[in-house]
What does this fold into?
Amino acid sequence: MTDYRLITEQIKALAEESNDPIPVMANVSALLFHAMEDVNWAGFYLVKGASLLLGPFQGKAACVRIAKGRGVCGTAWAQDKTQLVPDVHAFPGHIACDSASLSEIVVPVHAAGQVIGVLDIDSPVFSRFNEDDRAGLTELVETIERIIG
It folds into this structure.
């Protein structure tokens, strides 16, 4: 089980040096990628105009641009709602950036009341993510939102 409270405390400590969104997101990606079991990608997509643009991440090369409402990330952005997907192949319009990914969780990130990006985590295991992950990652994202303000 992932210790989201520990990761949150580590992020707070690392952000004391800089609250700039890019380094904060880079460190979050690294911490999650190495702390979570059965994860093959962890990172951010950032809102740029009418699409999400690849941001800081850990894992294999990824899709660079995702349209609003497309795939799991674009849907999380369009609906401003966390997407917990036990089987990405059953998700309408799923974008297969890495064919090894089988499940996914995506949490919207906000600033000034608007979605500014999403935290995306993929796994090569079906049904890898659960409600504990949703709660832990939501709390982590809320901390990120306060840090980058």
